[in-house]
Amino acid sequence: MAVQTPSRPSVSIRAGAGGRPARRGARSQFWIALAPALLLYGVFTLWPIIEVVLASVTDARDLTGESSFVGVDNFMRMFTDDPDLLNATVNTGIYAFFRIVVQTVLAFGIAVLLNKKMALGNVYRAIFFAPIVISPVAIVFTWSFMFDPTSGTINTTLRDLGLGSLAQDWLGDFDLALYSVILVDIWSSIGFSIVIFMAGLSTIPAEVTEAARVDGANAWHTLRHITIPLMRPTTALVLVLAVNGALRAFDTVYLMTKGGPGGATELYMTRVFDEGFAYNHFGYASSMAVVVIVALVGVAYLQNRFDSQVGKGR
């Protein structure tokens, strides 16, 4: 009797070919979905940056007027013949120290305290985060009233407490104005850093800190040898955001003092604004803006390098 061998199921040799159109379709859908965002990014980010870079090597007086090519003359002027820009750069350095170092340390310390279980913990978190959701204009208006030398809340309170000798013209004194503005900026932005630090602290396994306590580590040793090392990626993110904020600082200073008195609160970006729109030196202002763009790109590059190194070390 003849034995029939079972036939093999037929396999289409075009199975692979059928997958390629599917992949092409998925890829097309991806780019179609991404196209609006890319278009907006190109129109409102890339194109303005290109325009600024092109204008930085010209003597353009405004956005639409005629201009001629001047090469690197604008950049040479920045570094050799602009004492006002030097003053603004020094002020920006002072501002950056408080915004990057002081604010980061304060935000980390407050986040560690708020991360502990305490009564009214959510209320304290809301208090520190509240300035983030307040309009910058409202913040400037409120603090300007508080800093008023005659009827402001701060000086009035000092006089009521018998400390009238400490009352100052907080925004009019050449030596105090910059630090008064820095205080307002830290108050209004520290809440965001606190939230980021608290998010990072929530990722630290409780078993690690518990094991450290069992081994006899006190709160300081736990903070120094466990919490701070494990918070390095979060700290790096906060520092990058602080550097970006310091380099781009403008609104609070310009709304409160417009760089006065006598240039005491003039920052780099307020100088860029004045050169471009007050004095119509658009080409020169563009060269100043290019320096900031390069600095921000450098900071982003260092952040990516740090993230990649942290990822490899895990």
From TrEMBL:
One GO term (biological process): transmembrane transport
Region Disordered, residue ranges: 1-22
UniProt-listed CDD domains: TM_PBP2
GO terms under cellular component: plasma membrane
Pfam families: BPD_transp_1 (PF00528)
Residues in ABC transmembrane type-1 domain copies: 89-303
Family stated for the protein in its record: Belongs to the binding-protein-dependent transport system permease family.
Name of the protein described by the UniProt record: Raffinose/stachyose/melibiose transport system permease protein
Organism: Thermocatellispora tengchongensis
